[in-house]
Amino acid sequence: FHPNIIVHIFVFLQINVVTTIVFVYIIYQLIIHHYCYSVNSIHFCYQSIFDCLHHL
């Protein structure tokens, strides 16, 4: 097993993790913003975000 292969795999995994986190974050933001604008009430929106985080 060549050390270079391990390094490449590790780098690839790191890149994948980063892209996944970024992707999830963007989707999360889009959903929350959409929800906020649909409801058209900032207070209610923040309340729901807090509830969601609280349930995690």
Account of the 3D structure:
With 56 residues, the protein is mainly alpha-helical. It has one domain. Helix content is 91%, strand content 0%. Helix 1 packs across helix 2. The longest helix is centred in the middle third of the chain and has 37 residues. The model has no long low-confidence stretch (mean pLDDT 74).
The structure class reads mainly alpha
- Strand percent estimate: under 5%
Q: Which H/E pattern describes the elements?
A: HH
On the 0 to 100 scale, the average pLDDT is: 74
Number of E-type strands: 0
Low-confidence stretches: none
Query: What shape does the CA trace take?
Result: rod-shaped
Helix content: over 70%
Care to give the gist of this entry?
The protein has 56 residues and is an all-alpha fold.
How is the secondary structure organized here?
Elements: H1 3-39, H2 42-55
Helix pairs in contact: 1-2
